[in-house]
Amino acid sequence: MAERRDSLAQALRDPKKLGQASLSDWDRLIPEARRAGLLGRLAHLVDQSIGLDVVPERVRPHLLSARILAEKRRREVIFEADRLVDLLQDVLGTVILLKGAAYVLADLPPAAGRIFNDIDILVPKHELASVEAMLSLGGWRLGEIDPYDEDYYRRWMHQLPPLLNAARNSVIDVHHTLVPTTARVALDARELLQEIVPVKGKPHLAVLSPPDMVLHSAVHLFSEGEFERGLRDLDDLDLLFRHFGQSGMFWKPLLTRATTLDLNRPLFYALRYTRKLLGTPVPSDVVEETERHRPPRGILTLMDAAFHRAFRSPHPDCRDAFTGTALALLYVRSHYLRMPLHLLIPHLVRKGVRHHREEPAEA
Amino acid sequence: MQPREIYLRTGPFLTHLTTSSEPLLEALPSLYDPRCFVARPDFCDFHVFVRSPPLRRWLRPKVEFLFEGAPTFTPSPPDHAVPMFESGLNWVISTTVQQYLIIHAAAVERGGRAAIIPGQSGSGKSTLCAGLAFRGWRLLSDELTLITPVTTELLALARPINLKNESIEVVRRLAPGLVFSRPAEDTIKGTIALVKPPEDSVARMEEPARPRWIVFPVYEKGAATRLGIRPRAESFVELAANAVNYGVLGELGFNTLAEVVTRSSCFELAYGDLEDAVRVLTEMSESA
Fold first, then answer.
1. B252 to chain A: closest CA residue
2. What are phi and psi of A145, to 5 degrees?
3. Average pLDDT, stretch A203-229?
């Protein structure tokens, strides 16, 4: 994997090698990392390994700035989590955080250097209406959204349309299930809610159990249609595997849980690509067990080619002749996993027509 | 047309521009001093494109600005390429640079001391800035003032000054031989033109400056020039409101601004005549 387009993954995998990076190497790496949402993570890895002083002087401000921005996002997320507790504790008792917000509040490795925007929470489906009402009182409203898209979200998605707090410019994604409703892999969030883990020092805040956190991340990454944050999300999985894998009490429950929730295929992919691209250490008996859930050989070859390209920085310099096709394939696949065919075709047609009529939005 | 690669040095930043826009390629050597154009460096801070979006080359042609491969603004008509490049560069700086406190303000220096002129678009800050720059003050910046945390040193970028509508003619009359870009008409903000900064300002772009005055401009057509003291607390709040990344820097931002305001005299300057406003400020700078 000496491929130049994979230099960002290589840097994540082995940050000490950055000690030998030339100015030209950094000239490519900084934009690629920034586009991938990984510049803060890279800055953190540099701090932890070679130290910022080893980095050429001209390059340092970029890493420094990313670090400053990540720290700011971290402060904001903690603030927003507290506000959500204020707003929702009467309705929910406990507010369950997902993804980036969970990593920060539970002090997990993927929080380091993270640049993220939305706060994700998981809410029991029957509480959805009350939660939406309380959030509305707190200033959280639907952003500008096409009625078709809103309808799509409410009927088919695992979450409400993003809610925007205009005063603070922050966004909440309210999840009520693990995967989209019509998906072939039907999933009940009630299973997850039974295993939640309270956040230390923060009554009324909780996160998913370690196996559920990993599986949630995996199922989303491997049924995703867009990969602007693909490498970042894969790196999160690598960090979670390494962190939770330290205890003796993670791998077996993970495998059991994957079977209970019928998520063996996403787990297989998660382990396959974190090992391949990021060198995640995984016990061989665990690998063997997940191999039993691999897809047929032809499909796997296709998935390997597609995901390898999806897990690169979205920067144009990281694309090759097949990247466009790979991303299109994964886009269609994600919808196929989400919707039955008789709904998928009209949906994609409609999206296609809209895309050609629209222009890029003002930054 | 084959895109050209241009490497520009402005203060501490090296920008790599790739473009085949004829208006932009024509304007750059007239707006930027030769010393700003450098040979290809090994590391550039910003990689930007100004180009035609694919498929738009013939049908209602437009240009777009890309930073690190991603488009930022809505595409514009091709003859808006020059202001698009300048505001694109400002956008890039204000979103990626966090090692400095960034204020929406012009800054000029005289006798080793700098005046910060805060204001959003339309406040008259760029016009006043141009007036001062062409009447003996050194231009540090016309749009984004960068302040080093703790030391409060102001950076000099010495980039072309962005002028709108009537200001263009007002500034043109200040001195003979001022070099303007071809005005871009019908932009969201009206007609925009850029004026080449004084050579001395560019020659001294490595030289920082310390803040000594904060001047809040209020342009009022026909008004007599009035320089009034503004309380420090009020000035602090207004300056913070104009700071792009005040929230990001948190406590460091607060302390830096507090230091800037403490060591500066703060004024409000109402003016209707540019030359007179410049005269008043210059006199003030000599006596204070």
1. A68
2. -145, 140
3. 93
